TrEMBL record:
Cited Pfam families: 7TM_GPCR_Srd
TM ranges: 22-48, 60-81, 101-127, 148-168, 206-226, 247-273, 285-306
Keywords: Membrane, Transmembrane, Transmembrane helix
Family: Belongs to the nematode receptor-like protein srd family.
Tagged with keyword Protein biosynthesis: no
Membrane protein topology class: Multi-pass membrane protein
Chief location category: membrane
Cell location: Membrane
GO cellular component, one term: membrane
Species of the source: Steinernema hermaphroditum
Protein name: G-protein coupled receptors family 1 profile domain-containing protein
Gene3D superfamilies reported for this sequence: Rhodopsin 7-helix transmembrane proteins
């Protein structure tokens, strides 16, 4: 490569990038703060405001996802990273308060943050499969769900450990950026971290988990929704059960829409950016704020569909609580639906003939 490489032209959507930078500073801090508060509130509801009929296995799923959402929001708020890919180099420029701690600490924080993001992506597929089993009256028990959550944690933990060995010294990254990314100004952003996949293959699994894994997981979500719909269409179900199934379908649809809104558009822009087809400065700012938005909106939808938690919100806001009927549907857009029934059979199981009722048991 010549000593004076030709400047790389990157055209932004705005003539003055200061406008974009200011807008994203406000957005990242706002969405991160909201996400932290809402996930803390959701965890409070899961631990202290979950009525007894809600299955412990269901609470495990809720708490597991809320914890990953919370730590992802905290990490992204502290880092506020900008992603700039170039060939096999992934450069992250730290704009958040964590840059006061230096590049190495930011890199360690990124490992934890990426672990939580990848774990949350995997949990989408897990909870959708759980929903399908729920509809077919084969909901897993508490012990199995603990093992599933532990397995998903260990998988992403292994990815994080592997990613830890792909560390590149920040001085090398800054020198690379000054030589090959002439459109990137690192003089005012000395705190950077990243990896060079051409020299170290250890970063491939985590990068794949962040940028590719959501695509097959989304395929699982669509397939499970389709199978759940087919199952109930082929079964003679009561009107009550059908109404619950329609609620379940709304929940499944709501979760499936979230990646379409917050993940796929940014992935397309990222692919265009990385391949050189479109060098939009907007892209490097947008990727992680959109992921943070996904983690911040998840608890809103969960609380909205979980009526026990929605009642807590109504009481806090001094809104007259709505009476929960004996056969009431409570569902989470981020997880399985949950239904309370007060008509147990002699063996203690929920009313037969209504497969969705199997989601909740008084004890596990």
């Amino acid at each position: 490569m010549s000593a004076n490489p030709q400047k790389e032209q990157r055209v932004g959507p705005y003539p003055n990038m200061l406008v974009v930078e200011a807008a994203f500073v406000v957005f990242r801090n706002a969405i991160g703060s909201i996400g932290i508060m809402m996930n803390l509130f959701l965890m409070y509801c899961v631990v202290w405001k979950s009525p007894k009929p809600i299955k412990k296995a269901y609470r495990i799923i809720l708490g597991n996802s809320a914890a990953h959402d919370l730590f992802a929001c905290v990490g992204l708020l502290l880092l506020q990273p900008r992603l700039i890919p170039h060939d096999f180099v992934y450069l992250f420029i730290v704009d958040g308060p964590a840059k006061c701690l230096g590049s190495w600490v930011c890199y360690l924080l990124s490992i934890i943050t990426f672990h939580c993001i990848a774990s949350n992506f995997i949990s989408y597929g897990v909870v959708y499969i759980y929903r399908l089993l729920t509809v077919t009256n084969e909901a897993p028990k508490l012990g199995r769900m603990k093992k599933v959550c532990l397995a998903s944690f260990l998988l992403t933990f292994a990815l994080s450990v592997t990613y830890g060995f792909s560390y590149v010294d920040s001085s090398e990254l800054i020198a690379y950026a000054r030589k090959n990314m002439s459109g990137v100004d690192v003089s005012e952003n000395p705190v950077v971290f990243g990896t060079d996949l051409s020299k170290n293959f250890a970063g491939y699994p985590m990068m794949a988990a962040l940028f590719i894994a959501i695509i097959p997981i989304f395929g699982v979500m669509v397939y499970v929704r389709h199978r759940a719909n087919i199952f109930t269409k082929n079964k003679p179900l009561s009107e009550l059960t059908l109404s619950r199934h329609r609620m379940l379908m709304r929940v499944l649809t709501a979760q499936a829409v979230l990646p379409i809104i917050f993940i796929f558009p940014v992935l397309v822009l990222y692919a265009l950016y990385h391949t050189g087809l479109a060098r939009l400065n907007f892209t490097e700012y947008a990727f992680f704020p959109m992921i943070a938005s996904l983690h911040a909106i998840n608890p809103f939808i969960t609380i909205y569909f979980m009526k026990p938690y929605a009642e807590v919100v109504r009481r806090i806001m001094h809104i007259k609580p709505t009476a929960i009927q004996p056969h009431d549907t409570s569902a989470s857009a981020n997880h399985i639906s949950s239904i309370t029934t007060h008509q147990p059979l002699p063996n203690g199981h929920p009313l037969s003939g209504s497969p969705i009722n199997a989601v909740i048991e008084s004890t596990v």
